[in-house]
Amino acid sequence: MKSPFRTASVLIAAITIIAIVSSCSAGKPDDAPTSTTQPSATARPTVTQIPTATNTPEPTPTPQATATPSPTPTATPTPQPPDSYVQEMTKLFTEKGIDLSTLFVKSVGAAQWPTASLGCPDSGTYYEISDAPYTGIIYILSDGTRSWEYHANEDDSFVVRCSEIEPTSGSLTNIALAEDLRLTRSATLMRRDFSTDTFEVRRELTAEDAGRVANILNQDVALVPADTCTTIFRIDFVTQTGTAEIEFICQDDYKAFDVYWNGLHGNAPVFGYIIGPYLTGNPIPTLPTATP
């Protein structure tokens, strides 16, 4: 049999529990829905992230070409007139009567020429060419109304008065080209025998000397018609196309190296130092004398 005390205790505990439950239920609103499911989360709108604006790069400018500065040319100093200009001024005074007080150097300039004529050849004359080009000075003297041109070599030891030389006129002749002397096989110095009026062999020129003579003849020269002359020497050039005969030194003036070819006449003083050694020990032949 149960104890009345125990029964009472159980009864009191049950009443207490009911009271607590009733109290909790009274705190809720009557219309609150009862649900066993969790409420769904409120949908949030999708936010598209705006990209951070990027500065558009400026186009890289094409670099301008840097102009290479042209070097400033160094002015070439005007050469001083050679000392000979004083002598030439004096000659203009003494020979032409030009007032010295009016004379002055009009211009001065450096120059070079292909022959020893220094650019002012005498008509019918052959010039040395072995040291070409020939350098020197051109200067012009003037009295204000007239001018005189001079060509001086490099050391001023030789001056050509160009204004006093007659300009070359007429046709020019190049014997070396006309006779194909560049094809020379041999060259022989001949001498006239006045007793028979024929040329005899004197000596054969070396290949070097033959070439030097041929080079001198390789110039355009205004040769003139030859006067009647009995020549003393002749050089026979044997080439691939035949034999070319160049006669020189007239019996009337054996000191002049006059050149005769095909009825034409010129002067080649530079032949002297080439041909001279071949004449050593063999004087100019004696001209025949008339028999009484």
List the helices and strands and how they pair.
Elements: H1 4-26, H2 84-96, E1 104-113, E2 134-142, E3 147-153, E4 159-161, H3 175-178, E5 186-193, E6 198-204, H4 207-217, E7 224-225, E8 231-239, E9 242-250, E10 258-261, E11 264-267, H5 272-279
Structural features, described:
This protein has five helices and eleven strands. The relative contact order is 0.10. It has 292 residues and is an alpha+beta fold. β3 and β4 (159-161) form a beta hairpin. It has helices at residues 4-26, 84-96, 175-178, 207-217, 272-279; strands at 104-113, 134-142, 147-153, 159-161, 186-193, 198-204, 224-225, 231-239, 242-250, 258-261, 264-267. Helices cover 20% and strands 25% of the residues. It starts with a helix and ends in a 13-residue tail after the last helix. Residues 31-37 have low confidence and may be disordered. A seven-stranded antiparallel sheet has the order 6-5-8-9-10-11-7, with helices on one face.
Any key phrases for this structure?
seven-stranded antiparallel β-sheet, alpha+beta, 292 residues, four-stranded antiparallel β-sheet
Structural class comes to alpha+beta
Q: N-to-C terminal Cα separation, in Å?
A: 218 Å
Shape: flat
Number of helices: 5
Low-pLDDT runs: 31-37
Percent of residues in beta strands: 15-25%
Reported for the largest beta sheet, the result is:
7 strands, antiparallel
> Considering DSSP H and I runs of 4 or more, what fraction of the residues is helical?
10-25%
Strand order of the largest sheet: 6-5-8-9-10-11-7
List how many beta strands DSSP finds. 11
Helix and strand run? HHEEEEHEEHEEEEEH
- Give the rounded overall mean pLDDT: 81
